[in-house]
């Protein structure tokens, strides 16, 4: 399991509106079909993303390459740009235990709050927090089982 962070090139925005976020989330779903993985948490900030993913058959590098190549092509075509969208290679930390898993989920879900964007903390186009706190049955692309199991610890950390 990995906590992935990927930033926009020169820390520039990679999402200019919620339509871009929705497209990125749809591309995550498409990527999961070709390179299966479990996505436990996400946060889509303006200039970077956080993903908590558990690999199944493919290393995170293949998953992120496929996802970010697809999104970069979309973004550059939509905004008539060229060149790199993401700043170098993603940063990935290995999640070694349940404590770090809960801590990483909390960090990811509270990212908008730390950037004074509190109104987006539970918005599904910004974070997966709403799927964990208020399940609707529409969480298909989010894996909720592990965080559900650890929910008492997670709720204390909120």
UniProtKB/TrEMBL annotation:
Positions of transmembrane segments: none
InterPro entries the UniProt entry points to: Transposase_17, Transposase_17_sf
Annotated ranges, domain Transposase IS200-like: 1-111
Source taxon at top rank: Bacteria
Pfam families given in the database record: Y1_Tnp (PF01797)
Biological processes annotated in GO: DNA transposition
One Gene Ontology term of the molecular function aspect: transposase activity
Official protein name in the record: Transposase
Species of the source: Halobacillus trueperi
């Amino acid at each position: 399991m990995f906590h992935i962070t990927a930033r926009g090139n020169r820390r520039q925005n990679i999402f200019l509106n919620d339509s871009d976020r929705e497209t990125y989330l749809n591309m995550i779903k498409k990527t999961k079909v070709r390179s299966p993985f479990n996505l436990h948490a996400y946060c889509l900030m303006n200039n970077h993303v956080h993903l908590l993913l558990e690999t199944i058959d493919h290393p995170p590098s293949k998953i992120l390459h496929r996802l970010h190549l697809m999104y970069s092509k979309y973004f550059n075509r939509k905004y008539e740009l060229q060149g790199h969208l993401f700043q170098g290679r993603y940063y990935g930390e290995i999640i070694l235990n349940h404590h770090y898993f809960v801590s990483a989920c909390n960090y990811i879900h509270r990212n908008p709050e730390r950037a004074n964007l509190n109104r987006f903390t539970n918005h599904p186009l910004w974070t997966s927090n709403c799927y964990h706190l208020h399940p609707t049955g529409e969480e298909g692309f989010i894996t909720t089982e592990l965080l559900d199991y650890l929910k008492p610890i997670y709720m204390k950390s909120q």
